[in-house]
Amino acid sequence: MGAQQRVFKQKIRSTQSLRKIFKAMELIAASRIQKAIARSQAASPYANALTRAVSAVASESNVDHVLTTESDNVKHAAVLVIGPDRGFAGAYSANLLREAEELIRLLHNEGKSVDLFTVGGKAKNYYTFRDRKIEKSWTGISENPTAEVAREIGEALLENFDPEAENSGVDEIYIVFTKFVSSVTHDPEYRRLLPLEVVDADEATTGGQSAGSTDASAFPLYEFEPSAEAVLDALLPRYIDSRILSALLSASASEQASRQAAMKTATDNADDLIKTYTRLANTARQAEITQELTEIVGGADALAASAAGD
């Protein structure tokens, strides 16, 4: 076997090994995405009911609550960036971080300082590499988020939320995540968590009812006991936790869908490379055979000429 054939054979073996890894990761992502979608749908009824209750309190009562009243002089914002812990998901991380940078740029242009909170190793490494201060980060939970982690994140975000503070309080809280629409569509976006923006249940969660349906637009009648302020004090932290958990689950499904698509593309590219290297190896083999035949024929002619001269 010639040198060229050995090179192409080695490349074929290496590409075949990579293809096995890509195919395995594609199958794993395909199985996990269904579980992530199921978890997101299972969490929707609670999030829908909680969103409707909070919206009813905020819209049907004249309560001047710290979590629902916008400050006249907003100077400080907190931004939670929900990213993946692992790579091999195509442009998923890049698109998310681009959306986060756009939000941070807009906040800076409005004269607001920003506190960063991150979920996932990719977002943490991105800002750490650029010497950007991170107030708190959570890693190792992007693929399997839990309600306990969402509650911990919510408590950390609410800890410094105080629009009435002159210098140290946080006036606004934003969340940046990737919204899962379908297996082929998942869009990065940002939303303001606080001060509360009254939204329909479908907008607050992934997989809710359509925004134009009767059930999504009509609030039931509530009586607030002991008072609307006490109800808001109890509901709003839970509302924030449910919004964060919904975003975590949506981001988890989006991550798996992106990884499945990326690994499918990588597997197809590996197949194309194997075909290309196989053709090149066959071409090199034919060239070597032709060269050997040419040398044999040339040697035979030289011997025949030498014998005829004698």
TrEMBL record:
Molecular function via GO: ATP binding; proton-transporting ATP synthase activity, rotational mechanism
Pfam families hit by this protein: ATP-synt (PF00231)
Membrane topology according to the record: Peripheral membrane protein
Entry keyword annotation includes Transport: yes
Origin superkingdom: Bacteria
Protein location: Cell membrane; Membrane
GO cellular component: plasma membrane; proton-transporting ATP synthase complex
Function (record text): Produces ATP from ADP in the presence of a proton gradient across the membrane. The gamma chain is believed to be important in regulating ATPase activity and the flow of protons through the CF(0) complex.
Classification via NCBIfam families: ATPsyn_F1gamma (TIGR01146), PRK05621.1-2 (NF004145)
Name of the protein this chain belongs to: ATP synthase gamma chain
Organism (species): Brevibacterium linens
